[in-house]
Specification:
This protein is mainly alpha-helical. It has helices spanning 8-17, 27-32, 42-51, 63-95, 110-128, 148-156, and strands spanning 2-3, 25-26, 136-137, 140-141. The chain is elongated and about 100 Å long.
Amino acid sequence: MESTGSFWKPIYNLLKLEDIEVLVVNAQHIKNVPGRKTDVKDAEWIAGLLRHGLLKGSSIPNRDQRELRELIRYRRSLIEEHAREVSRIQKVLEVANIKLSSVASNVLGKSGSAMIEAMIAPHLCSWAGLCPDQNESAGKRKREVIIRQSIRKLESLGVSVTVYAAAS
């Protein structure tokens, strides 16, 4: 079997469960052997190379070790993605002239998060439409009503909203 990407893994696992001897070969080793390698004659070509003893199998670790390696790779990708997100947050803050990294070593740590929350909190209700505008024209004040969509917008962010009826 030729190892191409990760397509060989499920087939290899199934054949190993049935105690069938499997030889996984690096594609580069097949290409280095003189002759042509095409998709149409691929299986015949590999079988012929194997019959003549020209193929060397790759070292495949046992299933537990393969699964552990997959978990470690996944963890590494999550850590890298987290670092990219922190960088994006820092960049957004710096574009807004907020250099949080100069006062907090960890922007998403306890103190960094508290500072970000303190900056955002006054504007959150306004963004969600929960703060009535100060609409005044010719000395007459217009009443603004908090709409149900604004409450849904905040609740979608996980903010608990309690509405009290204003005294008329």
